[in-house]
Amino acid sequence: MSGQLWGQCPMSYSKIPAGKDLPNDIYVAIEIPANHAPIKYEIDKETDCLFVDRFMATPMFYPANYGFIPNTLADDGDPLDVLVVTPYPVSPGSVIRARP
User: Fold this and answer.
1) CATH number, position 42
2) Strands (DSSP E) along the chain, which ranges?
3) With 16 labelled, which of 39, 47, 79, 95 sits at a CA distance of 20 to 30 A?
4) Domain carrying residue 73
């Protein structure tokens, strides 16, 4: 990544809107790809960067890409969680348009 200092995040998830045409078209920031190794990624609220949160002890796989809708807030204080079905896994940290 040219032009960046080591340790800087390439994008700010807090600046991504919840969607282009709500509620028909939403943006989802992917944290865990479909059928991925049992590694839990999470966007850190302080740095706005994607971190490895933990290695899961059970060999659990998400059947779809797991992520969240930016700039939303669920009852638990975190952004709304989303599963996005795609023909291929989407890389952690990617943002994808989806339809509810």
Assistant:
1) 3.90.80.10
2) 26-32, 39-43, 50-55, 65-68, 81-84, 95-98
3) 39
4) 32-98
